[in-house]
Design brief:
The protein is α/β, with parallel strands linked by helices. It folds into 3 domains: 38-358, 3-Layer(aba) Sandwich (Rossmann fold); 392-479, Roll (Luciferase, domain 3); 483-614, ANL, C-terminal domain (GMP Synthetase, Chain A, domain 3). Helix content is 35%, strand content 23%. The radius of gyration is 26 Å and the shape is globular. The chain starts with a helix and ends in a 5-residue tail after the last helix.
Length: 619
Amino acid sequence: MYIWCSLLAGLALLPIFLKSLFPYLADDCCYMWRTLKLGIRLTLYKKRKPFYSVLDRFLETAKKHPTKTFMHFEGHAYSYSEVDRRSNQVASALRTHAGLKAGDAVALFVGNEPWFVWTWLGLAKLGCAAALLNFNIRSKSLLHCFSCCGAKVLIASSEVKDAVEEVLPALLEKGITVYLLSDTCSTEGIVPLSEKISQASEQPLSRDLRASLTVRSTALYIYTSGTTGLPKAAIVTQERVWAASFIQAVSGVTSDDVLYINLPLYHSAGFLIGLCGAIERGMTFVLRRKFSASQFWEDCRKHDVTVMQYIGETMRYLCNTPRQGNEKDHRVKFAIGNGIRMDVWTEFLKRFGDIKVRELYGATEGNIGFINYTSKIGVVGRVNFLHRRFFPYLLIKFDIEKEEPVRNAEGLCIEAAKGETGLLVGAITKISPFNGYAGNQQQTEKKQLSNVLKKGDLYFITGDLLRIDHQNFVYFQDRVGDTFRWKGENVATAEVGDILMTVHCISEANVYGVKVEGHEGRVGMAAVTLKEGEKFDCSDAYKQVVNYLPSYARPYFIRVQNSLELTGTFKMKKVKLVEEGFNPSIITDPMFFLDAQRKTYVPLTEPIYTSISAGAIKL
């Protein structure tokens, strides 16, 4: 009897013992179990004939739960069946008037609104690939984004009519058909589409129209900034859409949850993780045109939101709002996103309650990603056997000055030690492919690294420095190369430099990002040289950057130098400039600050610098 009692007592204490030795064992097992189940599901979807897509999942839910609310938007609730009918009308109208068929690419230039949702669903019903254009881009960038995906049709909302008209001659010259989501349009060359859609049939279209699609078919083009100076169209396959949509399921979200989407739908976070994740779960989501810190919690309470999305800046904005007595009076239990600082993370939980923050790491075009499925603050993921088995990756030693991996005498890369910062690379395999960029083979090849562990192997270069500690937690450290992140957007320095070179007085421009106290990411700064005999023209510089760059890409600081420092291969050096920042007490070169209120650049003085550092001047 004594032995049995001792045995039972030992078994009762076993969980406590295991918890003390392996504090994250339960989290690891739960994550691996969910991942395994989702992997089996995806395998079964891929084997079904015809291929079972995220669209088919939407149609399945619309049939089973037709009256369930799919989307809330500005006081109106749209059911699954209503969105299904509206997307049928879009598909019918585009098939009749534009002659679209499976495999065609269509550019979608629409903001966060219901039209975006059912227009994309309509295109998916025809088997078309949608190119999701950034709502903020203009001029040269807009033309580039449109042309590189090979689209012959552009669908735009009435809000961006001016931007479309600016590039309309070039579009028409290429034989592009331009549709505007409006009942009327007086501009020759732009076809109003809304009336055609409203008159089209609501009846379902035959699935045969998209029968040719496979798991490897292109579903989307999502744009990401790169070192070329112009956005790159990442090819997103049907398989990739499924994989990204599973992130909510891995986090523990169910069909009973309500998701709040305030991130742009042209981004992979808002579209793939948010919208497609909601479809995969068969849940309800709330769509907002753009993020509002003052309205955020009110929206969450009004719609019983349980899942929110974020980027680092949105979390900081929420923490900077005036304190309220009812800050924890909400039902939000999950926050899914990336880019949150450790101090903001801590403050967010302290103010707004026990919310499970699922910090992510990944890239739209990347083949490797992480998710922090534990409650540990400050990490982007955790190493576990199952993840590494199916998605092999390495952290390799990287020379920041030379901006290249460190190699040994045999020409192979050197793996970073535990606790050491290294460049993350993911093995390119059948299970974790790298699909590259549409119409840009050169940039596709630049993102691939061979001879990593052995001769002839091939890895995807993330361009990010990470660190894995001795407890197997993964930490994001920094970005390398010519791209930095500001306001949740990737900023390509070469694109900004090209625009600065159009300023009459500027001869050369070296663009980089610098840290600002109290802000995530890096704000744009440029070191420039002036043409002989010229002075820095504050007005002209302001006019060019405002007219041709979205707000997040505009350089807030300009540093005028006599010459720009170059490497032995004539690349502009940035490391020292980044370290020096924009402190006028340290830097003797003339510097200028983008003053949005005065609509010009002004000399960067000590008082202005102090105000920026103290947060009195908002960036």
